[in-house]
Automatic annotation (TrEMBL):
<dbReference type="Pfam" id="PF06736">
    <property type="entry name" value="TMEM175"/>
</dbReference>
<keyword id="KW-1133">Transmembrane helix</keyword>
<keyword id="KW-0407">Ion channel</keyword>
<dbReference type="GO" id="GO:0005267">
    <property type="term" value="F:potassium channel activity"/>
</dbReference>
<keyword id="KW-0633">Potassium transport</keyword>
<feature type="transmembrane region" description="Helical">
    <location>
        <begin position="107"/>
        <end position="131"/>
    </location>
</feature>
<comment type="similarity">
    <text>Belongs to the TMEM175 family.</text>
</comment>
<keyword id="KW-0631">Potassium channel</keyword>
<keyword id="KW-0812">Transmembrane</keyword>
<keyword id="KW-0630">Potassium</keyword>
<feature type="transmembrane region" description="Helical">
    <location>
        <begin position="6"/>
        <end position="23"/>
    </location>
</feature>
<dbReference type="InterPro" id="IPR010617">
    <property type="entry name" value="TMEM175-like"/>
</dbReference>
<feature type="transmembrane region" description="Helical">
    <location>
        <begin position="151"/>
        <end position="180"/>
    </location>
</feature>
<feature type="transmembrane region" description="Helical">
    <location>
        <begin position="75"/>
        <end position="95"/>
    </location>
</feature>
<dbReference type="GO" id="GO:0016020">
    <property type="term" value="C:membrane"/>
</dbReference>
<feature type="transmembrane region" description="Helical">
    <location>
        <begin position="35"/>
        <end position="55"/>
    </location>
</feature>
<keyword id="KW-0813">Transport</keyword>
Length: 191
């Protein structure tokens, strides 16, 4: 199977996730700007989650361009990633509605951690299926961002029970690391 069908399905799921997240932001009753203030934590969690989903979409897109064919293992690894990404709207809503308190903030980190692990599994499955000269293997190289991100998410989960806002700051730092599109795959594909 070629990657186009897998990409289209994944793109559709990701588009739905973003739609669900924005629909969770309820329109306030009232016409004064002050009625928006209680929604600020919900909006902040939405912005961060939108960025994370965008990062996954962008990197997923690049990663799939290294595939020559899609195997059953890749299909299942991709579904595994989409499962964890599908929990982002729930975690986003819970953390925003509860103003970044400990347990929702820790759960948010858990979903990010599991998404990172699932992405790593998909990446390794693609590398294994493409053989010893895998373009993706050559592109990811040392992958320091891929190694440090799960450490940040796990640390932030623990810190959430001490200082939830510090956890959120760590989630922002991890997102900023990935915000600039990863050019390693582009460089290898254009060699």
């Amino acid at each position: 199977m070629r990657t186009t069908r897998l990409e289209a399905f994944s793109d559709g799921v990701i588009a739905i996730l973003i739609t669900i997240m924005v629909l969770e932001m309820k329109v306030p009753h009232g016409v004064e700007l002050s009625v928006l203030w209680p929604l600020f934590p919900v909006f902040l969690s939405y912005v961060l989650s939108f960025i994370y989903v965008g990062i996954y979409w962008n990197n997923h897109h690049h990663m799939l361009h290294t595939c020559r064919k899609v195997t059953g293992g890749i299909l299942w690894a991709n579904l595994h990633l989409l499962f964890w990404l599908s929990l982002i709207p729930f975690a986003t809503g819970w953390v925003g509605e509860n103003h970044f308190t400990a347990s929702p903030t820790a759960l948010y980190g858990f979903v990010l951690l599991m998404s990172a692990i699932a992405y790593f599994i998909l990446q390794q499955t693609i590398i294994a299926s493409q053989g010893p000269d895998s373009v993706l293997k050559k592109a990811v190289g040392n992958d320091w961002k891929g190694k440090i991100s799960p450490v940040i998410y796990f640390s932030a989960m623990v810190i959430a029970y001490l200082e939830p806002w510090l956890s959120m700051a760590l989630y922002v730092i991890a997102a900023l690391m990935w915000f600039v599109p990863d050019r390693r795959i582009e460089h290898v594909l254009h060699e």
